[in-house]
Automatic annotation (TrEMBL):
Native organism taxonomy: Bacteria, Bacillati, Bacillota, Bacilli, Bacillales
Gene3D superfamilies named in the record: NADP-dependent oxidoreductase domain
Domain of life where this protein originates: Bacteria
Domain NADP-dependent oxidoreductase as annotated: residue spans: 21-266
Record keywords, A-Z: Oxidoreductase
Lowers pKa of active site Tyr, annotated site positions: 83
One protein family per Pfam: Aldo_ket_red
Location of the active site: 54 (proton donor)
Natural source organism: Paenibacillus mellifer
Coiled-coil ranges per UniProt: none
Protein name: Aldo/keto reductase
Recorded family membership: Belongs to the aldo/keto reductase family.
MF annotations from Gene Ontology: oxidoreductase activity
Amino acid sequence: MITHLQNTTTLHNGVKMPWLGLGVFQVEEGPELVNAVKSAIAYGYRSIDTAAIYGNESGVGQGIREGLRQADIPREALFVTSKVWNDDLGYEETLAAYETSLRKLGLDYLDLYLIHWPVAGKYKEAWRALETLYKAGKVKAIGVSNFQVHHLKDLMADAEIVPMVNQVEYHPRLTQQEVQTFCREHGIQMEAWSPLMQGQLLDHPLLVELARHYGKSVAQILLRWDLQNGVITIPKSTKPHRIAENASVFDFELTAEDMARIGALNENLRIGPDPDHFDF
């Protein structure tokens, strides 16, 4: 039972990763971003997720530094994720991209580094680079994002290290059952991006009904559904009250029946690109 914002799951290499974190996709550099990261840390979040392509690693780094100082907690208390972009996939290119991300964030290491998209013919060399960074102790854990089962199988055929995490689009309209089953069987922790389907589910009648029943918001119902499915979740928000609301999901539990009703909304419907038909 996940009962606290700072509860963690243990990745297959023994590293502990918080179940809930702050996502910063589409949040531009500037005071709003810095304050969002600071607010999250002050409220008790211990996981921050960014990516090179978001173009906001510097602001995230500033928010982390100020947030840690304000909360008087060490860097080690925070779990920071970034991702290598498609243009930088390749052995040397990925090693260089990692150093660039570290420099922008102003950190000595990352807790998790992911390959952002499974670009055919490129992700294996990038993975080799991630394995090098991991073995050198420059990153605590390595993983992938947007990988389907066939991508994972292809990567793992040559990999020395099985990915620790696979971050994918995940919400009740896209439950990714096949990916989730494969990840579970191979000890790969699944993580949800766009858990709220960018707001598109907030007025769904079933979810509104459940929110009323549990005395919660629809967003809280969705995030609790992620957690009870064993999926790490990283909702994005820049508003302090929303950051707090998104984290208030540890004082109730959805019944098995309600979990199934939410899962039955699946239509294999994506709001983001399809990893198999994405113009990289």
